[in-house]
From TrEMBL:
Enzymatic reactions: 5-phospho-alpha-D-ribose 1-diphosphate + nicotinate + ATP + H2O = nicotinate beta-D-ribonucleotide + ADP + phosphate + diphosphate
Function, as annotated: Catalyzes the first step in the biosynthesis of NAD from nicotinic acid, the ATP-dependent synthesis of beta-nicotinate D-ribonucleotide from nicotinate and 5-phospho-D-ribose 1-phosphate.
Record PTM text: Transiently phosphorylated on a His residue during the reaction cycle. Phosphorylation strongly increases the affinity for substrates and increases the rate of nicotinate D-ribonucleotide production. Dephosphorylation regenerates the low-affinity form of the enzyme, leading to product release.
Full protein name: Nicotinate phosphoribosyltransferase
Gene of this entry: pncB
The family this protein is said to belong to: Belongs to the NAPRTase family.
Keyword DNA damage appears in the UniProt entry: no
Gene Ontology molecular functions: glycosyltransferase activity; nicotinate phosphoribosyltransferase activity
Pathway in which the depicted protein is active: Cofactor biosynthesis; NAD(+) biosynthesis; nicotinate D-ribonucleotide from nicotinate: step 1/1
Nicotinate phosphoribosyltransferase N-terminal domain segment(s): 12-142
Length: 472
């Protein structure tokens, strides 16, 4: 997607302080010192326990293409410091001009359920390179993870009814709209109204018509009939432009004329008013008129809470169009993802663990080159997650403590395991081919189903990792 939407270099998709720190590492003659950074979120969005990881396909493309273009270097050459002098030495800019990413990246597969403080992505690379990536990687992962998680919540609330992404017009720019459509499909949306996203990712595209179509004609019934003439097999009539009840009657009249021509009205859409009451009234009128198969779709500021409320109230709505609150990740608006140094090699080649300490407990970080081991029962259901440092030999998963405090419980000896972080990039080059979007979507659905019945899920620190946190 990045290649489709951007024709130039993305090396400057970063904050200035990443470049000034890179320059300082270069000046200190330690730009090749190997370091490990862990990307994780502090708190899961929307008050739930986990998030669905997304955005990794863009990470692959970004790292594979990472390079400073000549005009990037020209721009940096013109930057000045607080006294008006040049910000970067020419020799450093020459260094950047030939810089390519040469490190290793491990990541959880897209669609995987990830819990707070578990790494979604881990970078092992020369510290100058790893530091330069921070802002871009967070930008590429945070937003789609937020939207995939929101979409999964809406899809679950709909209970199997199709949920359609209608959010492009409310997205924070064209790229955000396309990214959101892909993430929403991963999370469980059945289709999108975003045609560009449909083209780029082969997502099914769906839509009805706007109020402006009805308003373009002197008579609502005439508008429906004209639409039916053009698209006889694609008629879901929007019935609330003027008066919803008369709109339902006009849709029925148009449906009868369609039937006379050998076609069937697919349904109607409600976009305002008391959706529950109007849907029940519409269902009764459609059934009485001989249209029991005509579906009722609803839109209008829907989210998972409103969908669940309507479902629980018995509203006969079977198709849900969601827009603003999906594409903007409302009410959270952002995932609190961060990218922190976990370990660095010293001059004798040994790893030194690093962690941030803070008066704000939530801003403290875990030291180490973190990996997540997920334990599963005989039926493949998740039992617990253990964080461990995969640079430490002799990890002991029989001991440790819970991430939130307290002793970790013993796990069944027969439990199967899988490590969540998998190779994404080695030596700066992508590993293998990315899975297709349908496979990612199916994986996400399985993750949501597996964790839906789990309460009090434990995330623990392996014993040696737990012991290592005290003095870092």
């Amino acid at each position: 997607m990045l290649r489709s939407l951007n024709s130039g270099s993305l090396a400057l998709l970063t904050d200035l302080y990443q470049l000034t720190m890179a320059y300082a590492h270069w000046c200190a003659a330690d730009p090749e010192r190997e370091a490990v950074f862990n990307l994780f979120f502090r708190e899961a969005p929307f008050g739930q326990a986990f998030a669905l990881a997304a955005g990794l396909e863009d990470v692959r493309d970004y790292l594979a293409d990472f390079a400073f273009a000549p005009d990037d270097i020209d721009y940096l050459r013109g930057l000045t410091d607080a006294r008006g002098g040049r910000l970067f030495e020419p020799a450093f800019l020459d260094y950047l001009a030939t810089l390519r990413f040469t490190g290793d990246v491990d990541a959880v597969p897209e669609g995987t359920a990830v819990f707070p403080r578990e790494p979604m992505l881990r970078v092992r690379a020369p510290i100058l390179q790893a530091q330069l990536l921070e802002t871009a990687l967070l930008n590429l992962v945070n937003f789609p993870t937020l939207i995939a998680t929101k979409a999964a919540r809406m899809a679950r609330a709909a209970g199997g009814d199709p949920v359609l992404d209608f959010g492009l017009r409310k997205a924070h720019g064209p790229q955000a709209g396309v990214i959101a459509a892909r993430a929403a499909y991963i999370g469980g949306c059945a289709a999108t109204a975003n045609v560009l996203a449909g083209k780029l990712f082969d997502i099914p595209v769906r839509g009805t018509h706007a109020h402006s179509w009805v308003m373009a004609f002197d008579d609502e019934l005439d508008a429906f009939l004209r639409y039916a003439e053009a698209l006889p097999n694609n008629c879901i009539f929007l019935v609330d432009t003027y008066d919803t009840r008369s709109g339902i009657d006009n849709a029925i009249a148009a449906g009868r004329q369609l039937r006379e021509r050998g076609h069937e009205m697919l349904g109607i859409r409600l976009d305002s008013g008391d959706l529950g009451a109007l849907a029940r009234e519409a269902r009764a009128r459609l059934d009485a008129a001989g249209f029991p198969d005509a579906r009722i779709a609803a839109s209008s500021s829907l989210d998972e809470h409103r969908i669940a409320e309507l479902k629980q109230g018995g509203a006969p709505i079977v198709l849900w169009g969601v827009g603003t609150r999906l594409t903007t990740g409302a009410p959270d608006g952002a995932l609190d993802g961060v990218y922190k140094l976990g370990a660095i090699r010293d001059d004798d080649g040994r790893w030194r663990q690093r962690a941030k300490r803070s008066d704000t407990a939530d801003k403290q970080t875990l030291a180490g080159s973190l990996q997540v081991r997920r334990f599963l029962d005989a039926d493949g259901r998740p039992l617990a997650d253990w964080l461990y440092d995969d640079e430490v030999v002799g990890a002991d998963f029989r001991a440790g403590r819970l991430l939130a405090g307290g002793e970790a419980r013993a796990l069944p000896a027969a439990a199967s395991t899988r490590d969540l972080l998998q190779p994404l990039v080695r030596g700066g080059r992508p590993v293998g081919d990315p899975p297709d979007l349908t496979s990612i979507r199916e994986h996400a659905a399985g993750e949501c189903s597996a964790f839906a019945a789990v309460t009090g899920y434990e995330v623990a620190l392996e014993a040696r990792l737990a012991d290592a946190q005290g003095d870092k």
